[in-house]
Amino acid sequence: ENFTLLSRVRNKPYDVFGCWLNETNLISGNLHRIGRITSCSVLWLNNAFQGIESENVNVVKRLFKIQNLNASTIRTVMVADCSRYDSPDLLLDYEEQLAASSTCPVFDLGSDSEEEEAKPKQIPEPAVQELPDERGVTAEDGLQQFFDDIMEGRVRPAMTETELETKVAELFVRNRTKPPELNLLSTDSNSKTKYLIFTTGCLTYSPHQIGIKRILPHQMTTAGPVLGEERRSDEFFDSLDHVIDIHGHIIGMGLSPDHRYLYVNSRAWPRDCVISDPMQPPPIAEEIDLHVFDLKTMKEVKRALRAHRAYTPNEECFFIFLDVSRDFVA
């Protein structure tokens, strides 16, 4: 009746957006600059009703701390509740989708023809490959030696300042990242599992990947130490449990009512594009593609739909928020 303010939550930059984890806690984020194109996104768990009786009770707790490479940031945070997968009143009939071709052809709703064009699956490349050379030295050891030579003046760097910053950040994150808790797909019981889902990237500032991080039951409360008692001093960042590469600019995401399927709007990059400057993302297609991913298998299950066009350039891209009901995607 009196419109009492229950909580004030910090959320910066704005396009983290934030979301509810459960009925009492919500997730927000903020961004910390580390270098010119390297940053760190911190995701926070906030008590939505922050009136407390004791100053010793947490109203906010750090959830995850994730390194961002090549000017990318975490955006459009949402939570999928795996316990809803088999709920009878939410369950959708996806037999047709699951039987669809694994190559995920594109069906263009905006054209006059009904021909489908095949679309190749994009396979993300690892950031740094650990391949031993003929002397038995890993790529990481070679990179470390390269940095030592630069710092001690034995060699001049054969790369730009931006490329060097990214290589340093990759090396640091490899040695200072907490490993995943569990295999994302190995769990038998989804009753209490929730997934934190967000757009991210590794090549440029345009959001071109979907990051997925499992939220464990003990992480779903603001109780306990703010920084987490399980974190060792060398575990500076948290790793992602799964990454889906879209090979294009993601402009919207939405969950099906049963939270099993993730719908993603994107505008594709040219097939063979090479990104040499993270501040210069590739041109994006006018066609808007709608992809559907099964969060139980982490695979694309439904052929991509294409219905709308957009004409903004890649540096002025925008969001088209999705809403998914039992029968429609809006």
From TrEMBL:
InterPro entries: FBXW5 (IPR042508), N2O_reductase_N (IPR011045). One of its GO terms (biological process) is protein ubiquitination. It comes from the Eukaryota. One of its GO terms (cellular component) is Cul4-RING E3 ubiquitin ligase complex. This is F-box/WD repeat-containing protein 5. It comes from Phalacrocorax carbo (Great cormorant).
